[in-house]
Amino acid sequence: MKALMKQIDEKNEEIADTLISLGMKRPIARVLSYLKNRNEVTSVELEREAGLRQPEVSIATKELKEYGWVNEREEKKPGKGRPHKVYSLKVGFGKIIAQLEKQQRTAIDETQKNIKRLKGLGISA
Fold it and tell me: Sheet of 41-42: strands edge to edge?
């Protein structure tokens, strides 16, 4: 029997695509867009619902924890086996957007500064 692969909805897909257009890696963007409206999710849910492989979920959540955007805890599952990792957003999605906006503005300012420097060095088209 084939497992059902439920993907993130159209709005969350658009959010993920927009995050990717800002330079975010696809797995990170998909995890963020999925976590946006959830209290907590397991790594297995992220794999299934966000359409990611287990290594992609692990790498994405590790980076998101380093940014300070995601909490991680372990939850013992019934029976034997390794516990599930459970994730939730540590900060609101609006704060994440504000941080991304600040990063983009800094990158734009740096680019403009470098162009001005080149012009000052007498390099022209």
Answer: 41-42, 84-89, 70-75
